[in-house]
Design brief:
The protein has helices spanning 9-12, 19-22, 38-55, 62-67, 104-110, 122-125, 146-163, 183-193, 221-226, 230-237, 268-277, and strands spanning 24-27, 30-34, 79-85, 95-103, 119-120, 130-139, 165-170, 173-175, 202-203, 241-242, 247-249, 254-256, 259-262. It has 280 residues and is an alpha+beta fold. The protein has 2 domains: 9-113 and 146-167; 173-277, no CATH class. The radius of gyration is 18 Å and the shape is globular.
């Protein structure tokens, strides 16, 4: 179902009118909160474009290239989490990190979650209570540090607590479209972090790429873990699991995996663990 044009700007951005009360943390020069204006959403899209299309290997549409922004229909219904470095500015010019977040009501407006194009997520849809899809995570190149990641996760924790989120999920990625280059890491994830059957999501048959290509004992788990991208490591440190099967995303030039995190594991202890791990 499409959004009615009469909806307020806050609803079009996926942010409730009281969004400032949901996530609001200031720590030194940094602030984390939800986007409150169309200009802030556009600035987050511009950051995504710089990271995904200019720094990495994603292929923009002609319209994206002309506007130098990464955007799609999901942006109109999602909440956009922002980290601002207030030394750069208090508004759009200060944005150095972002996450796109979608709950059930937002997914209902478009008829699906983003990750359903790659995975059969029925087990997430059927999960009791509120669920949250995380995506489009990126940080400005010169702001990729523990402080920025800390702020993003503090924002996600506050948001999850406010909406009583029971489980979070998304499709973080490995660089490149040749999964054989990540055979050790993918095999490690499958052997050591595969989700239990009741929440195990599986890649769509037409897109399924086997993860456990190396048998257990044929690789060094520590070396394999070192090859896992930092964002996926972070989810694992929060008690995350992976789904069954990787997926090639030719548009973004990545090899995606499915991550599931039960929010009951996101305690202060795990957040501190995550933050320490980001220094590794």
């Amino acid at each position: 179902m499409r959004i009615d044009r009469a909806d307020s700007e806050a609803e079009l951005l996926g942010a409730p009118a009281s969004s400032a009360e949901i996530v609001k943390v200031v720590a030194g020069d940094f602030e984390v909160r939800l986007a409150e204006t169309a200009a802030e959403v556009e600035a987050a899209q511009a950051l995504r474009y710089r990271v995904f299309y200019e720094e990495m290997t994603a292929q923009p549409t002609p319209e994206m290239a002309a506007r130098r922004r990464d955007f799609d229909d999901f942006d109109t219904v999602c909440d956009h989490l922002l980290v601002l470095d207030r030394r750069r500015g208090e508004g759009p010019e200060g944005i150095v990190g972002t996450y796109r977040m979608m709950r059930r009501p937002a997914a209902a407006k478009l008829g699906r979650f983003y990750s359903s194009a790659e995975y059969d997520i029925q087990k997430m849809i059927d999960y009791p209570g509120e669920v949250l899809e995380l995506g489009r995570s990126c940080i400005e190149k010169d702001a990729r540090n523990t402080a920025t990641m800390q702020m993003l996760w503090r924002g996600i924790a506050l948001y999850s607590n406010h909406y009583n989120i029971q489980v979070m999920f998304g499709c973080p990625s490995f660089p490149g479209t040749d999964p054989s280059q990540h055979a050790q890491a993918l095999s490690y994830l499958y052997h050591h972090h595969l989700a239990p059957p009741e929440i195990r999501v599986r890649a769509l048959p037409s897109r399924y790429v086997q993860m456990d290509v190396l048998p257990p004992g044929s690789y060094d788990p520590r070396k394999a873990m070192a090859r896992v991208p930092p964002l996926i490591k972070g989810y694992l440190r929060l008690g995350g699991f992976v789904g069954d099967g990787a997926v090639i995303d030719p548009e973004f030039g990545t090899t995606d995996v499915f991550i599931i995190v039960k929010t009951e594991t996101i305690t202060e202890k795990y957040i501190r663990h995550y933050e320490r791990g980001m220094r590794d």
